[in-house]
Design goal:
By secondary structure, the chain is of the alpha/beta class. The strands form 2 sheets. The protein has a 5-stranded parallel β-sheet, with helices on both faces. Strands 1-7 form a two-stranded parallel ribbon. 28% of the residues are buried.
């Protein structure tokens, strides 16, 4: 999602009326979150900045969207319990403090407020929702402001993810000495002997 005030067709225009003036990115985020909530689907909103989560929290309050936010590590379990069991459709989390070890398959939408240079942290956040046990399609919404450093950071994240995937495939192929095609790269001599005997 590219947000800017230069054109009307670039994704920065809100699809619905949002109460308050929160800036282009937060207003668009809020509109998208409200659309998801209207369908009774659950969302997780990630940011690496507590100040940004403060703004989003105020915007959600002003627009009557049920949410829960864990401001400390001790409160994450309690907040997740409320998120899972109630009509609360939005969970606000700091990607640096809350992306590890949680399974949140109740949500089907992940909102990344800003691009992360650390693609491992980015993947961890998304994998809270997109993991074993998830029976629904998962949607990832990314917000990048056009003409800012965010574009470069997001490009670097994508390149880094591509490099990690290529490295993983290369390592997988090195383990298999006899190529059989496909993504796994083939079999070791021992595996091939087991299959043929």
């Amino acid at each position: 999602m590219i947000a800017s005030d230069k054109r009307r067709d670039d994704g920065s225009r809100s699809n619905r009326k949002v109460v308050g003036s929160w800036g282009t990115k937060v207003t668009r985020l809020l509109s998208d979150v409200m659309d998801v909530s209207d369908r009774a689907e659950k969302s997780i909103v990630f940011s690496q900045w507590e100040d940004m989560l403060d703004v989003v929290e105020e915007a959600l309050k002003a627009n009557g969207v049920e949410y829960v936010r864990a401001k400390t590590l001790r409160k994450i379990g309690e907040c997740v319990k409320v998120f899972r069991s109630s009509q609360c459709t939005v969970l606000l989390l700091n990607v640096k403090n809350s992306a590890e070890g949680l399974t949140l398959v109740e949500a089907t939408h992940v909102f990344m407020i800003e691009p992360l240079l650390n693609c491992g942290l980015d993947s961890q956040a998304i994998n809270r929702v997109h993991r074993i046990g998830q029976r629904s399609k998962t949607y990832v919404h990314r917000y990048v402001v056009e003409g800012t450093i965010e574009e470069k950071i997001d490009r670097m994240r994508m390149e880094s993810q591509d490099d990690e995937l290529e490295d993983a495939l290369h390592e997988s192929r090195k383990k298999h000495e006899v190529s059989a095609g496909g993504i796994d790269g083939g079999f070791s001599h021992e595996q091939l002997q087991d299959i043929l005997h």
